[in-house]
Amino acid sequence: MRLPSGTFAQTYGQDMGLVRTKSNWIALVILAAFLFTIPQWASNSFLTLVTVMCMTIIAAHGLNILTGNCGLVSMGHSGFMMVGGYAMAILGTRWGIPFLPGIILSGLIAGVIGLLFGLPSLRIKGFYLIMATVAAYFIIHWLILQFRGVTGATEGISMPIPELFGWSLRPKERYFYVVAVLAILATVVAKNMLRTRSGRAFVAIRDNDLAAEVMGVNLFSYKLQAFFIGNVFAGVAGALSAQYYMFCNVEQFPFFDSVWLLGMLIVGGMGSVSGVIYGVIAIKLLQQVAIKIGPELAQIVNPQAAVGLSLILPSIAIILFLIFAPRGISHIWERIRNYYQLWPF
Fold first, then answer.
1. Is the pLDDT of residue 4 over 70?
2. What domain range is 306 assigned to?
3. Does the N-terminal peptide bond of residue 344 adopt cis geometry, omega within 30 degrees of 0?
4. Would residue 18 count as lying in a domain?
5. Fewest C-beta in 10 Å: which of 113, 130, 175, 275?
6. Cβ atoms of residues 122 and 64 within 8 Å
7. pLDDT band (50, 70, 90) for residue 306
8. Within a domain: residue 86?
9. What is the DSSP annotation of 257-314?
10. Half-sphere exposure (CA, 13 Å, Cβ side) for 100?
11. Is residue 63 domain-shared with residue 160, that is, in the same domain?
12. Separation between Cα atoms, residue 212 and residue 70, nearest integer Å
């Protein structure tokens, strides 16, 4: 990250810091204060929206590691969220696993399942990998429906009220704090992931996998690592979603969610950690705008056309960003920030 004009890092620790200036610290404190006071003043619908955003951010970070950083385009991400959700439901209801260990185990189970579907990534890429991940979603969907005695098939699984260290996570305000903390933790982990050996290998594979292999990067190992890490994030998000509604069903994880997650990366900025947050907020807000203006629009035009508005508005946004700002909101913000940080030069 570029520092403002006249500001220099004096130690190695300062140079490697995630938050490097006083203005960054002030902005971070204000953001944290806003986030953690939301339950005190927000309506129930707004609180639900922000909670869903936080869970979506966790899932999108996983897809960003896999697709944005490693270049492995996945269209089956919601399938691995489904694995995490069902793992959480089964571990909690049948085995009595507590909330926090259940979240961790659900993420790991989704990561291991992701390894199995990541095996073809060494031999195929591009369109063929996309089709393989699409197939992964429908295979997972089919398997869950077949094991009726364990998963409940179409009936789903009802879940008990979650507890954390004996503290009930109901009402929803309490659950929001848990989800918000996990979303922040996921953001920090994703940011630091790019500074590790694996993160640099992911970027090298994304830019040119042949050149990366010539330089000694083990493509098979690092591609599997990307699938595992990305799907761990997806599993955690799916587990949180299932526990939030205290019910798990295949209908909660439609295939189209994978498309929206990819669209969020396009709008926010592919490969950017901050872009994940921008993209999730932008798409979710557009969907809410469509829901709000849909009834009014239905009185003017065809009611069926108004129903599809929640699909049309985000789709138009994705197309416009692909044409006019392919590097997303994060790049636009970076250009604006750099302009003022380098002032007066």
1. no
2. 255-345
3. yes
4. no
5. 130
6. no
7. low
8. yes
9. HHHHHHHHHHHH-TT-HHHHHHHHHHHHHHHHHHHHHHHHHHTTS-HHHHHTHHHHHH
10. 9
11. yes
12. 12
